[in-house]
Design brief:
Blueprint (H helix, E strand, L loop, with lengths): L2 H21 L2 E5 L23 H21 L7 E8 L9 E7 L2 E7 L5 H22 L12 H19 L12 H9 L7 H6 L8 H17 L3 H4 L4 H7 L7 H4 L11 H17 L7 H7 L4
Parallel strand pairs: 1-2, 2-4
Antiparallel strand pairs: 3-4
The protein binds zinc ion (ZN).
Length: 306
């Protein structure tokens, strides 16, 4: 150990307990008016006529903080400061446990709780836990709407969503029926690999004109499972690899996404091209009219209820 490293180790030891306490901070805010402060696009259907009691807010906050602590333990690269904005919506989110989420920007999540979900807040907690594991995985990976670290292409979206879903499956012990993949999924995988890079995000991630739903999400889960089986790596180990590497491990040729899907976990937002790519993707989500808001997981939550 060099002198410098030794000094650093001691410094870390000395300030350790304090920085750990600071790092586990997650700010939870409840959006109770249409004009709440948020860095993303507010959802269009806030259920402002409904309110949460103080006791319900405490339960929600505890659940969010508990998941955040666990994710930070498993993935220490999680941003030091995280803000979670919780909103109530009228939309039917039964297919996703009554809760939908969105990773809007580095350190910034939106969580939507459905007021139409039977059983109220206690019944929503498992769905909230799942959504938090999924969205916090996106934050670690840098798969966010603003400040996204990835290039365009359905296979890249599929891999990132697949990782977040498999991680959430493992942590919660629950697999959503909406995420299960069909017998012919290997053909779906080949199909998305052959798509042009600007293929419609709405068609391939949410609802295809031919009637198939969530092709990208479900195929992504399959790709991650294949990569795990072929490599013996865990989902956490895979989460440190680029989309191209994961596609390769799944037996698909990811070389085309080497550049476009290049991912630097140490850097901030990627190139303009990446940002433009994402903007185009979200515009296509709007065009298919599933839900008129810019956000992938928001729509993900709505996909089986629209
Ligand atoms: Zn997602």
């Amino acid at each position: 150990m060099t002198l410098r490293a030794f000094a650093f180790a001691w410094l870390t030891l000395l300030v350790g307990p304090f920085s750990i306490a600071a790092q586990s901070d997650v700010l939870v805010q409840f959006a109770e008016t249409a004009a709440f402060e948020f860095r993303g696009a507010p959802p269009p259907d806030l259920a402002l006529h409904e309110t949460l009691s103080d006791q319900e807010k405490v339960r929600i906050e505890n659940e969010i903080q508990g998941v955040e602590r666990e994710v930070r333990r498993l993935m220490p690269a999680l941003a030091d400061e995280i803000r979670v904005t919780v909103v109530l919506v009228d939309r039917d989110l039964r297919s996703v446990g009554g809760v939908s989420g969105r990773a809007d920007a580095p350190g910034e999540l939106l969580i939507e709780l459905s007021t139409t979900f039977e059983g109220g807040v206690p019944a929503l907690l498992p769905g909230l836990s799942r959504a938090m594991f999924h969205e916090l995985h996106h934050l670690v990976r840098g798969w966010t709407i603003v400040g996204n670290r990835f290039g365009p292409g359905i296979p890249i979206a599929a891999v990132n969503e697949g990782l977040a879903d498999v991680f959430a499956d493992e942590q919660t012990g629950v697999v959503l029926a909406a995420n299960e993949y069909p017998e012919q999924v290997s053909a779906w995988a080949r199909e998305i690999m052959s798509l042009p890079v600007d293929a419609s995000y709405g068609d391939w991630m949410f609802e295809h004109p031919d009637g198939r739903r969530a092709i990208g999400y479900r195929t992504g889960r399959y790709i991650v499972h294949q990569a795990m089986a072929n490599s013996g790596k865990s989902v956490l180990e895979l989460s440190e690899l680029s989309p191209a590497e994961i596609l390769d491990l799944a037996g698909l040729d990811g070389s085309r996404y080497d550049q476009m899907g290049a991912w630097d976990p140490e850097s901030g937002a990627r190139s303009t091209r990446s940002a433009l790519g994402r903007a185009a993707l979200f515009a296509s989500v709007d065009r298919v009219g599933i839900v008129a808001v810019h956000g992938h997981d928001l729509v993900e939550g709505a996909r089986d209820s629209s």
